[in-house]
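Regression test case RT-17, inverse folding.

Input:
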């Protein structure tokens, strides 16, 4: 599993470099469009914008300035696009949060993977919400998603009703362990067919 996370980090690093490249090119595109419009070449400006839509419509990106978090978020955004899932993100985190890239991959990676699994076969409401808040040294990551079917809760643990149960719950256990490394915790709520995972870390 460590090897899996290391490979995932390599892929995320490549993704982040590509995102930075896109942001750099975007400035040049704006300059070109401004020059075309200023010269009255509106048709050429329109064609330039249409070309940008074709290139960038599959390159939605997230940027907070924190490498560890940006890498995994952008990696998961790309994965969500391939699955036809929309991710809605709200964030007010600073760039200098002391969160190791490995732990970011464990926490965000597993929580998003669980959410993907829950919504990928749904016909409607294929939306995952991610809310990241920071206040006085405390980082709160909330990921929620709708689901269909039945969840069984035994104590503080949710048990799947799916046939493949061998690896279910391993990811959540890893998230809990990673959160505890930061004197934090993982809370899971289930209400009105919405599954919500709240990871709290003191960073």
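Golden output:
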């Amino acid at each position: 599993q460590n090897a899996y996370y290391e490979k995932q980090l390599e892929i995320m690093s490549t993704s982040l470099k590509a995102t930075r490249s896109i942001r750099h090119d975007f400035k040049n595109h704006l300059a070109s469009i401004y020059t075309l419009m200023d010269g009255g070449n509106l048709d050429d400006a329109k064609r330039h914008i249409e070309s940008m839509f074709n290139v960038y419509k599959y390159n939605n990106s997230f940027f907070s300035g924190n490498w560890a978090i940006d890498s995994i978020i952008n990696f998961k955004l790309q994965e969500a696009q391939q699955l036809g899932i929309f991710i809605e993100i709200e964030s007010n985190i600073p760039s200098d949060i002391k969160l190791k890239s490995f732990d970011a991959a464990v926490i965000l990676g597993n929580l998003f993977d669980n959410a993907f699994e829950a919504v990928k076969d749904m016909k409607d409401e294929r939306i995952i919400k991610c809310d990241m808040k920071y206040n006085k040294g405390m980082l709160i990551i909330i990921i929620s998603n709708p689901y269909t079917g039945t969840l069984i809760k035994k104590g503080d643990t949710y048990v799947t009703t799916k046939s493949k149960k061998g690896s279910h719950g391993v990811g959540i256990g890893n998230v809990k362990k990673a959160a505890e490394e930061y004197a934090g915790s993982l809370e899971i709520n289930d209400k009105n067919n919405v599954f919500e995972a709240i990871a709290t870390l003191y960073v």
